[in-house]
Amino acid sequence: MSALRWGRGAAGLGRALWPAGHPGLLAEEGALGGVWGRRRSSSASPCEQDRGKDWGHAELLEVLEARVRQLQAECVSEVTVKRVDVARLPEAGGFQPPRKAQPGATGAAPGLSGRWAEKLDKEKWTMQKRRQRLEAKLEEQARKLAREQQLRVEPRLLNGQLAKSLQRWEQGGPRSPWEEPLAQLLQEAPRRLGCEAEQAPADRVAGARLESQRQRLLAFLECCLFTGHLPLAHHVLVVQHSRSRQQRLLTLAMYNTVMLGWARKGCFKELVYVFFMVKDAGLAPDLLSYAAALQCMGRLDQDAGTIQRCLEQMAQDGLQLQELFVGSPLCKEDQGVLLRAVRKARPGFSPPPRPKPPPPVSSSPLLREIYAKDRPVSYPRLHLPQKKLEGLFQQQLRVEMATTVTVESVEKAPRLTPEVLRARKTLKGLRARWEAALCRALQETKASEAQAARDGRPTLLPYLCLLGEREFARLLLQTLQALPPQGESLLWLAQQLGLRAFNRHIVQRKLLSNQVRELEKRYSQYLHLLASDAQVAEPCLPRQHWEALGAPEAPHEQPWPLPVLVQLGKQLAELLVGAVRMPSSLAAPQGPPKLIPVLYHVYSFRSFRQIGILKPHPAFTQLLAAAAERTLTFEAAEVPMLCPPLPWTSPHSGAFLLSPTKLMRSVEGTMQHQRLLERCPPAELHGALDALTQLGNCAWRVNGRVLDLVLELFTAKGCPRLGVPAPPSEAPRAPWGRLPPDTPPARKAELRRELARCLKVAREMQSLRADALYRLSLAQHLRHRVFWLPHNMDFRGRTYPCPPHFNHLGSDLARALLEFAQGRPLGPHGLDWLKIHLVNLTGLKKRESLRARLAFADEVMEDILDSADRPMTGRKWWMEADEPWQALACCMEIARASRSPDPAAHVSHFPVHQDGSCNGLQHYAALGRDSVGAASVNLVPSDLPQDVYSGVAAQVEVFRRQDAEQGVRVAQVLEGFISRKVVKQTVMTVVYGVTRYGGRLQIEKRLRELSDFPQEFVWEASHYLVRQVFLSLQEMFSGTRAIQRWLTESARLIAHTGSAVEWVTPLGIPIIQPYHHDSKILINGGLQSLTFSSSGDTSQKPNTLKQKNGFPPNFIHSLDSSHMMLTALHCYRKGLTFVSVHDCFWTHAADVAVMNQVPPAPRPRRESGRPLARALPTWDLSLAIVRHALLGGGAAGGDPPDLGAQPLPPLPPPALAPAADAPSPGVPRAVRPSAQPAHPARPVQVPGEAVLLRPQVPESLQERLGLPAAGHAAVGAQDRALQPGAGEALHLLLQLTPGVPAAR
Fold first, then answer.
1. pLDDT band at 689 (very low <50, low <70, confident <90, very high)
2. What is the predicted pLDDT for the residue at 181?
3. Distance separating alpha carbons of residues 627 and 420, to the nearest angstrom
4. Are the beta carbons of 1024 and 1036 closer than 8 angstroms?
5. Which residues does 897 contact at the CB level (< 8 Å), separation at least 6?
6. Residue 112, H or E segment
7. What does the DSSP 8-state code read for residue 724?
8. I need a surface site. Which of 359, 494, 640, 787 has the fewest CB within 10 A?
């Protein structure tokens, strides 16, 4: 009992405990003040207060002494009492007890003492009980803590019979070895793959949440195996299995993962535990389960009988022994142990050789000529020898093994003043301390995560153990160095940190295995196909040669789920905030010395949303600026490659040597595109894979002369007019200072708007400056090197270079910095093509013939040579071009060629472009067979090239003149201001789904660039012009808007069925639109709770608005990509160097004429008695799509979604009729209606069955499409119903082929 409680008890007993006639003792003043605390106020006289004070001290002392004597007598516990100095009270006067002693009171003392002893006994008994309960509780907690410290191995089975069997086998001792229960478990295992499908939730949201939890748990278990935390993985699996609600998260892949871990360690008992859990969960072992069991037996050298029983049971389950060595993802060491176990039971067994099936060929008729063996080919080779390429491979390998590249910045170098040197020294010391602090913080975090993982929940412990602490610390310091002064979103930082940690883990995993050594051997053999001094037996495509080398591909590493990436990155970001501190003297030299955080977590509003931001301290930003360090750090995958990329051979393999790269780029966390590609037959992807490989094999170099001129402007004050951003010092200054109290509200509002404008311009300038700094620094870094740009594609099939900062898809400045590393002589017409290309870059002769453009180039040859010789001091003719930097580079190339002794022999590295004429409108005109629209976009032969932008501008001018005559004020103001440049962007993007609102913003931006246009009319004029542009397009391209509306309505109906719109491109790429309703993912704890959206999963409901608005432009983009890939493959077959910027094709000047002839144009035909103009490739693409849909197209995998009874949008004849029979077994039967439906395209559905629609092909199209005569009526093996979700949009193309009235 506490001293305070004893004091209160003494005060309560008071006089009863005071012995009669006994002189009291007075405690020394202040001795017990710390116990009693503040004395209560009293109204008694001072004399009485003193007496009460002395009496209280005496009472307390008496009670304490009695308690001490009792405890000492009974030896309950050892008590130490501090001695208190006391003074005996005076004998006479000054103090009397509170009440007089009564006669005979001496006999009362024993009675009082007896009651006090009785009370003390009771208190003692109570204290003993309390102590016993406390000791028992502490012992229980100690036992619980010990159990928690010890990871669980034995499972708690929910099936009572299995639990008893497990207990009996455990107690059986040597008489019941573990091999026996395993054999019995395999025999009694259920013959189904578990209850996952039965327990699949009907709700999409619940299903998506369940799938996300499963992905996170599986990633945790796999990561535990890699980091050596197998007991922890087993413990988490046991805990999750023992909870009935959590058991539905577990899949057979999770059990197999832990089983393979125990098998590699040779722990048979733990493996049997997992088999018990598999059976308890109602799952049936698969091939990987048996592989784990046999591998463990092989490591433990088990007897042949046990292994034989396992093999017999595997055969009874319908699993073939040969599949263990072909279909299981085991490494060579595991397969060797597995083979040793099998041969113990079957000595004569030998694994089957890896089958070499005949090379599959794409079924697309467009690729038939590409892969033809009976025609001559001349595949291009690089200009570098084998030894040089092998050295470049080693350089690139070292770069990717280091995972980062350090590049010198091109910012103007500061003078090394004492202030700069002092700032750099301070930064160096701080970074050393920060690295040590981060390592300590990581150790503490690992310890806490390890403790949390013992509760049976997946934590971040294995992810934090994937990399060394110093590597994590360097990653965080690199992130801190690149943080902008205004800060970054915590969510964005978390995702980036998680991705970078994952990429480093993949590289390290490849380094720890033998993949690098095997890659070196295989790549050296691969270079025989590309090197200038090597030969191959038979010319082939790079992918074919790589596959022919025979080495197996490494197993694919599944990416971590998005929640894991964000959670790991958030933890790392919080470590950075907590561990990185700097002296306060850097911020306030006069203040007290202490450590302050370098990063602050603040909240800010962006786009009307409050988000958390990590912002660096201004003092740290000033320190970085004062140090002026001239280095930039990039990830290895952000820099162009120093050797030819790996050829794309699958959705998982290609591009960089070690860094993971997606074939189809998508938002992180989106898996639907990857699943589509994996389900797609490999041969159907060969066209896209070979095209991407060809684009990446183009070698580049930096145009040094142009780079020098750009750097001269960049290190000065920039030149925004030429696309060289100005430094932040040139940003407009915001009006600062205090306003007088009498400032009117209008003036305050104006100043606020001006301040917001200045801040916006400053941020934009800083962003542009940083982008240019990265690009120019990389260009300077690669100035004297040859490099390559690996490519991948987006979900529509459009191709992009993987390095983001320095490539040919950038601005005019970025394109001018690049030229082909391999040159070619100009030949007889190469110089002419250079001149024509220069005139095209100026934008001066858009509607002139090629001869007229060539003549114009000869006329301005003096200006061209002046621009090449004196670009900054001459007449500067090149600066007036639409693309000034490319024009300057072309001027320099023309000057070199024209001044050479033989221009035809001049070796040119300059790329010449052939750009499409509003490519989107070209595809719409081809699909709609719109001859008028086709003529305006150069789809039909013409003496003069047509310019659709000038045509639209002329049509808008006609409408404006009419309105001006009727007195429309805005039409009168616009007189003389309607030009090609004003309407070009809107015309170009309207076919890609731009709305009137977006078009108005585009036109408004162009009008604001006109200095002499009255700015007060900008808003009204942009509204007026966007209406006229849309009307003009409707006049000129009558079928385009109708096609767009049909595509939009079709997508709306498909989305209403609960399916995303899918289709397959002519080259076989499966496309699915990633527009779904957002599902919110929450990560609690830490600095802030992060909530982010994931909208790319097919388990979520499709977003109807985005699906219908995105389908027309995405469909056209996929056609555009197919056309480009087909051209790339034909050019590669002819030995040309070819790259593209979507619809803009690049090649050497000497090869432009050859490129313009591929793909070979088909023979002119006659349809329906009418002559057909010479067909261009785009026309053939649309026919290929129709044939692809009729003879086996559709999306890869999956049944067609059910459209219910919703009518399809109206179409011109021929109509769709319901199919009479199912096209193939296993597809739901389509029912022919007994009565004609109200709409000819309306499907009729029987409950529980899907309706399949087959188009009726007009007889006039059968020969053109290559269909059998009865292809539209008979049901053959090649017929396939047009699936609404995968190929419904292709129905339009059938309706719009020649012989059928085009949609108007």
1. very high
2. 62
3. 5
4. no
5. 826, 830, 831, 834, 903, 906, 908
6. helix 108-149
7. B
8. 359
DSSP label at residue 368:
T
The mean pLDDT of 893-918, rounded to a whole number, is: 92
Give CA separation, 1106 vs 459, 1073, 1074, 1076, 1081, in Å.
36, 9, 9, 8, 21
Cα four-point dihedral sign 1262, 1263, 1268, 1270: positive
d(CA 1044, CA 1182): 16
Residue 749: helix, strand or coil by DSSP? helix
Q: How confident is the model at residue 200 (pLDDT cuts 50, 70, 90)?
A: very low
Q: How far is CA 677 from CA 651, 674, 1216, in A?
A: 6, 5, 30
Q: In this structure, what DSSP letter does residue 612 have?
A: E
Structure token pair of residue 1030? 């849309």
Give the span between the Cα atoms of 916 and 1088, in whole angstroms. Answer: 50
DSSP letters, 750-783, are: HHHHHHHHHHHHHHHHHHHHHHHHHHHHHHHHTT
CB-count burial class (<10 Å; 0-12, 13-18, 19+) for 128: exposed
Of 520, 539, 537, 771, the C-alpha closest to 646 is 520
Q: Helix 179-188 and helix 304-316: axis angle, to 10°? A: 10
Going by pLDDT thresholds of 50, 70 and 90, the confidence category of residue 862 is very high
Confidence tier at 112 by pLDDT (50, 70, 90):
very low
pLDDT reported for residue 175? 40
Is residue 528 within 8 A of residue 535, CB to CB? The reply is yes
- Quote the mean pLDDT of the chain: 77
pLDDT reading at 248 higher than 90? no
Half-sphere exposure of 515 (CA within 13 A, CB side): 20
Q: What is the pLDDT of residue 820?
A: 96
CB-based contacts of 584: which residues, under 8 Å, 6+ apart?
A: 591, 592, 593, 594, 595, 596
Please spell the DSSP secondary structure of 446-502, one letter per residue.
HHHHHHHHTTT---SHHHHTSS-HHHHHHHHHHHHHT--TT-EEHHHHHHHHHHHHH
Phi, psi of 12 (to 5 degrees): -75, -35
Q: What is the pLDDT of residues 301-357, one digit of tens each?
A: 777 888 888 888 888 878 888 887 776 677 778 888 888 888 888 888 888 776 665
Contacts of 489 (CB under 8 A, 6+ apart): 606, 611, 612, 613
Tokens matching residue 936: 């305006």
Helix (H, G, I), strand (E, B) or coil at 847: coil
DSSP letter assigned to residue 786 = -
* 3-class SS of residue 914: strand
DSSP H/E element including 999:
helix 996-1008
d(CA 776, CA 410): 7
**Gap between the Cα atoms of 1169 and 1183, Å rounded:** 19
Q: What's the CA gap between 459 and 96, in Å, rounded?
A: 72
Q: What's the pLDDT tens digit per position in 1096-1113?
A: 566 678 899 999 999 999
Going by C-beta distance under 8 Å and a sequence separation of 6 or more, which residues neighbour residue 407? 631, 632, 633, 634, 639, 777, 778, 780, 781
Burial of 1026 by CB count in 10 Å (0-12 exposed, 13-18 middle, 19+ buried)? Answer: buried
**3-class SS at 611?**
strand
Burial of 302 (0-12, 13-18, 19+ CB in 10 A): buried
Confidence of residue 697 (pLDDT cuts 50, 70, 90): very high
Under 8 Å CB-to-CB from 1298, ≥6 apart: which residues?
Answer: 929, 1167, 1168, 1170, 1172, 1260, 1261, 1264
Tell the residue number behind the tokens 């003036």, with chain if given: 747
CB 785 within 8 A of CB 384: no
- The dihedral built from the CA positions of residue 848, 849, 850 and 853, taken in this order, carries a sign that is negative
Catalytic positions, please? Answer: 915, 984, 1143
